[in-house]
Structure formats: structure tokens, C-alpha cells
Design a protein that fits this description.
mainly alpha, 86% helix
């Protein structure tokens, strides 16, 4: 019974997030963090950052991937099912209704102006999510340099209209991280070997 209550609570939380979030998955990042990390304590900040990284690196919408990971973390297989359904259903229901009256819906001036306002709010929400993620990561020289290079690269590609998929940034970042890990691992082993040799000589 407690398990079912927990699953229903997770479903309702994700449903609420999906219902009141405009702007797609990136706009959901800050809201999911507030609801499930800060309020409910389902995850800590480090775990949430790891999940966001994995969700962005795997195929599919980041909101769905994040909901699935969080659901599994808090309730196993059924937790992932309930969380994913919760975050997807509001969009499905609303878009289905809009699609029926699509042309009439777009012709309403009030709706058109409302969406103009929503666009501004969404941009701010996404910016806030980015700032929160930045505040959550460790400020190591490696992270700062890699982030700076990514920002410069994104701006440069945008200014010169160079087509460069965000997938490549993720893959390159992952590759660089692996290379630095291997280098650090080799150095650590060499340092340990040197200390062992010096200890043996004594």
C-alpha cells in the first residue's frame, strides 16, 4: 500500500511538472530540481547533476529521460513507468486537444500574444536552469576551461552560421573527460610505483 502511495505521489508530482512547464525539457530542469531535490529530497544535487548529464547524452527528450531515471531511482521499474507517464501525459492531452482545433486556435489574437509572452518567460526559465546547473558543478580548472571552450565554440558557430550539432559537443566533452581520466590514472599509478620503489630502496 505504501509502495502504491509512493508511486501515485511520484506520478502526480511529475504530472504537475509536465502540466505547468512551458518550453520543453530544458525549462523543466529547474522545476524538477526544486520539486524532487529541494522539496522532496528524492535525490541530492550531485545525483541530479549526474542524471541530467546522462539524460542529455542518451537518445530522446531530456525531460522524458530525466523522469525515467528519477522514477527508477525512487521506485524501481514501476517508478520509472509512473514518472515517465506523469511527465508525458499533460503534453499529450493538451497537444491532442489543440490539434483538433489547430487552425481556429492559432487565429485567436489573444492566444498569439500569450505565446509571445510565454516565449520570453521560457527563455528566462532555461537561463535559470543553466545557472543552477553551473552553480552545482565543481569549479575545477578542467570544468571551467571545458565550459569556456564550449561557450566560445557555440557563440562562434552561431555568429558565423556554422552548422554544428549539440551532440558533437557532448561527445567531444565525454572524450576529453575520458582522456583526462586516463592521464590522471597513469600519473597516479606512476606516483604510487615511485613511492613503492623509494620505500623498497630504504
Amino acid at each position: 500500500m505504501n509502495k502504491l502511495k509512493s508511486l501515485l505521489s511520484l506520478f502526480l508530482t511529475m504530472f504537475k511538472i509536465g502540466l505547468f512547464t512551458f518550453g520543453g525539457g530544458y525549462a523543466m530542469i529547474a522545476i524538477i530540481e526544486r520539486e524532487l531535490v529541494e522539496k522532496k529530497g528524492v535525490l541530492n544535487k550531485d545525483e541530479y547533476l549526474d542524471i541530467i548529464s546522462i539524460a542529455e547524452s542518451t537518445p530522446g527528450p531530456i525531460a522524458v529521460n530525466t523522469a525515467t531515471f528519477i522514477g527508477y531511482k525512487s521506485g524501481g521499474f514501476f517508478g520509472s513507468v509512473f514518472a515517465t507517464l506523469g511527465v508525458v501525459l499533460p503534453s499529450f492531452i493538451i497537444i491532442f486537444i489543440i490539434s483538433i482545433f489547430f487552425r481556429a486556435f492559432l487565429s485567436i489574437k489573444v492566444v498569439a500574444y500569450a505565446f509571445k509572452g510565454i516565449e520570453v518567460a521560457v527563455a528566462f526559465i532555461i537561463l535559470t536552469a543553466g545557472i543552477k546547473l553551473f552553480n552545482g558543478i565543481k569549479k575545477t580548472p578542467f570544468n571551467i576551461v571545458l565550459m569556456a571552450l564550449t561557450v566560445v565554440s557555440v557563440i562562434t558557430c552561431s555568429v558565423f552560421a556554422i552548422s554544428f550539432s549539440s551532440i558533437y559537443y557532448i561527445l567531444i566533452g565525454g572524450f576529453i573527460g575520458i582522456v583526462f581520466y586516463i592521464i590522471a590514472f597513469i600519473r597516479e599509478k606512476k606516483f604510487e610505483k615511485k613511492n613503492n620503489d623509494n620505500g623498497g630502496n630504504k
